[in-house]
Write a structure and sequence with these properties.
This protein is an alpha/beta fold. Helix 1 packs across helix 6, helix 2 crosses helix 6 and helix 3 packs across helix 4.
């Protein structure tokens, strides 16, 4: 590991520390053809090893011990049309478009293995003939092409299952084909109709988990070079990006070649460094998040979901225009903790609350979270203002400590209460002592946050007071990740233990009011 590796990169490597390390030579394929064959190796003879217990067979020193095959990390999908190309001599030829940059996967994995000191390999896979049984078999499926396409309903269903079960789909638009971009976005939106592909924001951990990526060099279809932040699109499943798509071509750079047409990440000086760094970051991010994805793959069953709520507390979560439900299992674990540690009357039931309707007034406390920007409609602002003035309590947190949600939440609260201030709760706030026992004065944070801000030892909750009563409790650091019991590797959040303690105190405080 290089000394210049960023903090998230260190977290990732620690997750993978049990893997066997093997130095590799970073070399890109010279063309679109297959990788060259390895040079022959020779050994001199010698005496046998000492006798080994049966049934092992002794090896002579003249025999090369075959190491175990590296585990597969990426499966390149053999999916795409047969298209026609023209070589340098003007001769036409036909080829399958997924072979356009035949050494892309090998070139990227070579750099990834070298940078992180790991041993992973790639394979090619026909998804119509042999779809993976589990993401454990192939954590990443890789798709590339430039012609418009559609998936069959059967393949859409298999991809949906694979992604929800913890797998990741990485896709590249060869030559930055706008037709391919449009087709891929349509297909993913068909697989996840309630979500939309969107650009990942510059503060996303995928851009800092190994290399710190600022602006990188691009080339447009007219051949002009310019710098901008990496343009990766994605769809979240929970707290992780499960679909990662580059609308600017990366594959040719991974393969070690370029050509005049198309949009791509490529340096005017003729090197592929930026594209390789983006690829290394993507693989690093996926490896760190894959265990979380598999752990949270199963849905929590709320066994009291259909029962009347009565006087007990129901987890009521606000639906908004952003990714409003990134930690769907958080409520179950929080309520389980409350049931075990207190006499609170909780129901293992969750309801999605639409602020444009009158549903909010059925609940004493509402919860709101997300990673990204969102905006409340005028009707939603009006409803929330009436709910909070009437004695309701809004609890919110920025999932994973993401700055985009933090900025949006503060902005939207200004619409609800223009003259109110968001202020840090005093150390003697009843919120910290509502659960009984010693007040919560010291907490621990996620490894990422503890590394970035080692001075943080106390809880950092903020609030808005309306009519002398606390109406909003907000955390700029994640609570939901700790409630769900599985911490996102890149989260800026409370530890699971202290997130649950704070969550129970907040709910006790809400009921006591």
């Amino acid at each position: 590991m290089k000394s210049g590796v960023s903090g998230p990169g260190l977290v990732t490597v620690s997750i993978l520390a049990l893997l066997v390390c093997l130095p590799a030579v970073s070399a890109l394929a010279a063309s679109c053809g297959p990788a060259p064959k390895a040079a022959p190796q020779r050994w001199t003879g010698g005496e046998s090893f000492p006798p080994l217990p049966l049934p092992a067979t002794p090896l002579r020193r003249s025999e090369k011990k075959r190491p175990p095959a590296p585990p597969p990390l990426v499966a390149k999908l053999q999916y795409g049309k047969e298209v026609e190309g023209v070589d340098e001599g003007g001769r036409k030829y036909k080829y399958l478009e997924w072979t356009n940059a035949s050494g892309d996967m090998q070139g990227l994995l070579s750099r990834f293995n070298t940078d992180l000191g790991l041993r992973y390999r790639g394979v090619e896979l026909d998804p119509l003939a042999s779809f993976p049984k589990s993401p454990k078999e192939f954590p990443i499926l890789y798709l590339t092409g430039r012609e418009p396409f559609t998936f069959s309903e059967d393949l859409r269903g298999k991809l949906r299952w694979y992604l929800q079960d913890g797998g990741t789909l990485l896709c590249n638009a060869s030559s930055g084909s706008e037709e391919y971009v449009k087709a891929f976005v349509q297909e993913i939106n068909a697989i996840f109709p309630k979500q939309k592909m969107q650009l990942l924001t510059p503060d996303h951990p995928i851009f800092s988990c190994y290399y710190k990526l600022g602006e990188v060099e691009h080339r447009d279809k007219e051949g002009k070079y310019f710098k901008q932040a990496p343009q990766l699109m994605g769809i979240n499943i929970g707290c992780r990006v499960a679909v990662i798509f580059s609308p600017y071509d990366l594959a040719c750079a991974w393969d070690g070649h370029t050509h005049p047409e198309g949009r791509r990440v490529w340096s005017e000086k003729g090197n592929a460094e930026d594209a390789l760094k983006i690829g290394v970051n993507v693989l690093t991010y996926v490896m760190a998040e894959s265990a979380l994805g598999r752990a949270l793959a199963s849905d929590k069953v709320y066994f009291e979901q259909e029962q009347p709520a009565g006087d007990s507390l129901v987890f009521a979560q606000v639906v908004h225009g952003g990714d409003w439900d990134p930690t769907p299992s958080a409520a179950m674990n929080l309520f389980k903790h409350c049931a075990e540690q207190s006499t609170m009357g909780v129901k293992f039931r969750r309801e999605a609350v639409d602020l444009s309707k009158g549903e909010a007034f059925n609940h004493p406390v509402l919860y709101m979270t997300g990673h990204d920007d969102f905006k409340l409609a005028d009707k939603e602002v009006e409803t929330l203002r009436g709910y909070l003035k009437g004695g309701g309590l809004l609890v919110a947190d920025a999932c994973c400590g993401r700055k985009l949600f933090d900025a949006a939440f503060r902005r939207e609260m200004k619409k609800v209460f223009p003259d109110a201030k968001m202020e840090e709760l005093a150390k003697d706030s009843p919120v910290y002592s509502a659960g009984g026992g010693e007040p919560i004065a010291r907490v621990t944070y996620s490894p990422m946050l503890a590394k970035n801000k080692p001075e943080l030892t106390a809880p950092c909750l903020e609030g808005i007071t309306v009519g002398g009563q606390l109406a909003v409790i907000y955390s700029k650091y994640g609570l939901g990740e700790g409630w769900q019991g599985e911490m996102c590797p890149y989260a800026l959040a409370y530890s699971s233990r202290d997130a649950l303690r704070l969550g129970m105190n907040i709910l006790v405080y809400a009921l006591a009011r």
